[in-house]
Amino acid sequence: MRPAANKQPGGGGDDEIELVGTTGSNALADFPHARENCVTCPFHADPRKHCANCYCYVCDAPAAKCGSWDRHCEATAGDPYWRKQREAAR
């Protein structure tokens, strides 16, 4: 990371950080993660799409192996309904 270039003349204004690249592993892309947290296939774009490391929040299994993915793909940890479904599946 490096400080973003100050765009105001005279050097005033707030300093910001700009991410210009990454090295190493990104846990939300390279390791198993809940579907809603995937950075490879953004959840808001299409919850049905998933990467090889996405897990079903309800089944706690790889998304590719979830037999109810057509419904479970929309599950999030912040939704009380899906938390109940997850508890019932255990």
Task: Give a topology summary.
Elements: E1 2-3, E2 17-18, H1 27-30, E3 33-34, E4 54-55, H2 69-72, H3 80-89
Parallel strand pairs: 3-4
Antiparallel strand pairs: 1-2
What does this structure look like?
This protein is α+β, with helices and mostly antiparallel strands and 90 residues long. It has one domain. Helices cover 20% and strands 9% of the residues. It is built from 3 helices and 4 strands. The chain has helices at 27-30, 69-72, 80-89; strands at 2-3, 17-18, 33-34, 54-55. Strands 1-2 form a two-stranded antiparallel ribbon.
**Discrete helix count:** 3
Cα Rg: 19 Å
Distance between the termini: 42 Å
How many strands? 4
What is the typical, i.e. mean, pLDDT?
84
Biggest sheet strand line-up: 1-2
Derived structural class: alpha+beta
> What overall geometry do the principal axes of the alpha carbons give?
elongated
Main sheet record: 2 strands, antiparallel
- Helix % is 10-25%
Estimate the strand proportion. 5-15%
Region (Disordered): 1-23
InterPro entries: RPM1_Interactor
List keywords for this structure.
90 residues, two-stranded antiparallel ribbon, 4 strands, 20% helix
Write a brief structural summary.
This protein is 20% helix and 9% strand. With 90 residues, the chain is of the alpha+beta class. Residues 1-23 are annotated as: Disordered.
